[in-house]
Amino acid sequence: MLVPTSATGFSKLGGDPDLPPGASWPKVRGRPCAFLGQIDLSAFQPHMRLEWLPDAGRLYAFVDPEGYGYADQVQVSFHVEAPGEPRPPPLRALRFPERRVAFEQYASTPSLDWLGVDLTETDLTDAELDHLSNLPDAPFGDEIQHRIGGYPSEIQSEQMAIACEFARRDLLPSHTESEIAPAIRRAARAWRLLLQVDSDPALGMAWGDAGRLYVFVREQDAKAGRFSKTVTIHQTH
To answer: Domain holding 103: CATH number?
Structure first.
């Protein structure tokens, strides 16, 4: 979890990015993105090391506030160079208030959707299904969930890893289990949740009706520092 802190540090949500000199400000569909947040991996990894993330370097995330439905709605860049001075946004770019964040470790449970469980083949009671459906959100209660790593806490039913693989291949999503080829299912196992960004009134972040942004990256891309190849999924109530 990315939790508020009064300590000074690099990692934060909103504000102005400390981009290295020469780094460009992302622009998609003809408009500049809004700065979403930045994370110092060398500060994060000691809390719960994720082997598929680099041990050092800095992640910068930007969002197209109008880009719902686009896989590139969130733009992520990775830099090992020293950060620069805070850079104000270009004209017409939305700016969120700043919040410094620290890291708290929680247990993360995959949902039935993430596991690809076919409910028609299970012999579970309604109470058991409700319990299993609530497990991914259980550790967090009603807290706003800004997170790095773990499994997504889905708002809607969706096999997100499958959706990511379809998006990466520029294919239309499949709507029935029988239409998903085995090769797609195998490749989908490589997708990891990089960031989950919740709607947050205090930061002026509203993703639909109290929705969330989920940013995924393939394990092999993350290990190689290729964070330009992420896929964003948006869900709302």
So the answer is: 2.30.320.10
Q: What pLDDT digit, counting tens, does each position of 131-162 carry?
A: 988 888 888 888 899 999 999 999 999 999 99
pLDDT of residue 178: 57
CA atoms within 13 A on the CB side of 103: 20
- What is the distance between the alpha carbons of residues 84 and 25, in angstroms, rounded to a whole number? 13
Instruction: Give dist(CA 50, CA 223) in Å, integer.
Output: 10
Domain of residue 85 covers 2-235
Q: Report the domain count for the chain.
A: 1
- Report yes or no: 216 and 230 within 8 Å, Cβ to Cβ: yes
Long-range contacts (CB closer than 8 Å, 24 or more residues apart) made by 141-146: 143/1, 144/198, 144/199, 144/200, 145/1, 145/196, 145/198, 145/212, 146/1, 146/2, 146/3, 146/13, 146/37, 146/101, 146/195, 146/196, 146/197, 146/198, 146/200
Q: 174-181 long-range CB contacts below 8 Å, 24 or more apart?
A: 177/118
pLDDT at 47: 83
